[in-house]
Task: structure prediction
Amino acid sequence: MATCWQGLWAYRSYLLVFFLPIFLLPLPILVPTKEAYCAYSIILMALFWCTEALPLAVTALFPIILYPMMGIMDASEVCIEYLKDSNILFIGGLLMAIAVEHWNLHKRIALRVLLIIGVRPALLLLGFMLVTAFLSMWISNTATTAMMVPIAHAVLDQLHRTPTGKDVEEGSDNPTFELQEPSPQKKETKFDNGQVHPVPAASLEPTAQQPEELRFSQGMSLCVCYSASIGGIATLTGTTPNLVLQGQVNSLFPQNGNVVNFASWFGFAFPAMAILLLLSWLWLQILFLGFNFRKNFGIGGQAQERARAAFRVIQTEHKLLGPMTFAEKAVSLLFVTLVVLWFTREPGFFVGWGNLAFPDKDGKSMASDGTVAIFIGIILFLVPSKIPGLTPDPENPGRLKAPPALLNWKTVNEKMPWNIVFLLGGGFALAKGSEKSGLSEWLGDKLTPLQNVPSPAIAFIICLLIATFTECTSNVATTTLFLPILASMAQAICLHPLYVMLPCTLAASLAFMLPVATPPNAIVFSFGGLKVSDMARTGFLLNIIGVLVITLAINSWSYPIFNLHTFPSWADTNNTANCLATTPRP
Result:
């Protein structure tokens, strides 16, 4: 009997893929309407996404097959949804992130900031959180965590050693800093998404630590993965759910006037990120360092000696990077240019360069954030990585060799997460299918009783629901499934759609409790020293804090940014024609 159960468990993915479509067949058979057909497709994809019976990106391709066969949409209409402007923005943003990683600019930034902030326990915690959050605003949360965790463990190793004269004067080398060098002593940790990250062998061999040192090590590890998730919410390209929101808004409400762009999102999400990061730092400090703030800030002889030894380690590694190369300076300049162009394209509170240089008939910018990202991305393939000169080719004497460009396609192809492009497209196809089939209108009618519930209560409940759901499901899949439903609900009860869609998007990044919730959590957990209970205990209160911060954000400074006081005309579709004539909510 035990062998039978083991066999079923081993083949669970095959069984789910075979039986779930059959189990759900009564819905389209008994209710032969387009709404039921679309609901069948969405429920089937949701179950596959939740169980991961198929890779997430493969499940995202289902609408290409199901929608034409069920008469919901033409195949040509469905396929267009898979490469919309939000996908282009994602690809363009990743091109810059890959260039930053390729030239090791992120490590230079991290070490420099740590040198400025210092290595006293409380400040060290804050320093790692600030650096990780800033980097994850621009490059992937996974890459940021994979780089910062070894640095954190190397610094902790110095702090927990008994200081010697040599340590204080010079610091000591630590193999965990060698992130870019392959080593036969390194093992690999493979996650469900197929990504492989090297795990230094030193991290897999725990040394004897005092309880106080162990708690600090746990706090340091958790601060890195948590701040990576928190930092990603600050920018539109920081984490994929943000782009899902932009794409869904543009797909469901084509006349929205580009209400969600880089500048408006940053104005809304950055303050929320800063508040959440500060509160997280205070919570981690209290939980893992205690209330002895004099000790937390390293006031004491032996603590200061250890801090100096750890400081020397960071200083040594920063010196090993050498002066900034031409490539690093070029990437830095292009990065700053990209951010400035994003902010000034169509900021809303003054006329942007997009409105002046490339206006449409209504004065709106025809160039999008995706246009800017791809423009800078192409420049990365054109600018040489060294100052141009007559450099001889060492492989072919007598011939000259041009320096390579800042970015090449081989590097991009290896590091670009193409699966996310398909996953984004699948979400946009789902939203369009819901609209075309009439499922959105039907669902909105069923949700009209919620009109009697206060708006802040609705936002708070949505945040709790999404924060719970995202602990065990991909944050991209979570936002993809819930955003069209919430948009329909908002239209039905005459509520500004962004009032419920924004909290849903932010709450999808509050995956703090389980190692499997996000790749950053899994990376930190793989380094050892943490139990699931440690992460769950710490993450539970962080989830509550996150929900409260998001509720504060959506009921305060988001109002003037997105004009949430009134029901927008661009959301006035057939099922909401009476909303503009009634008193809007909120």
